[in-house]
Amino acid sequence: MSYILNIETATKNCSVALAKDGKTILCKEIAEEGYSHAERLHVFIEAIIKDAGIALQDLSAIAVSQGPGSYTGLRIGVSAAKGLCYALDIPLIAVDTLQALAAQVTISSGLIIPMIDARRMEVYSAIFSPTLEKKREVLAQIIDDNSFEDRQETLYFVGDCADKCKPALTKENHVFLEEIIYPSAKEMSAISFEKFKINDTVDVAYFEPYYLKDFMITAPKK
Fold first, then answer.
1. Which of 18, 78, 154, 193 has a CA between 20 and 30 Å from the CA of residue 103?
2. Reduced to 3 states, what is the DSSP secondary structure of residue 76?
């Protein structure tokens, strides 16, 4: 029996899920405009462990969303995950944020394109098969009328970019599943358990989130 704590903070959704043998048994999450990760994350972790009736020492591993996504959100999630792994002497598992987002979609044919907002008309995206096999690597791309024109399959778009992408992605094979969907720790459970079973872990000391783009510091406006 394996308990894995899954942490997802790559977007506005601060999400924590406890999984038992790859099945989510508890999840706490909230998506807020102001990014409340620093205030909410540890509260959610403590509440889930208490509600499950277990101790932190019962955890077999910690899984964290590796990105791409918000620089600050990823830093908060990875720092918390590393701290727990150090204290408990358990492995750290990194989960592709876009794969976990794609896992919210159930289709029998076509392709899943998870997208995370990266400001203006840019998104972080990847392409997955219905079985979550990655068909195209993660890119930071500008969405326009010609995006994905080389794909003839039905494309199912999922993420938090529908409002800005719908006017450009209007071909008959373009399908938007929801207006706004964020990555959730719930969908990390099965992925992290499969990684745990084959010892697919990362070095706690040296692991860094996958930011995809450099963090830019701008001067404050006077």
1. 78
2. helix
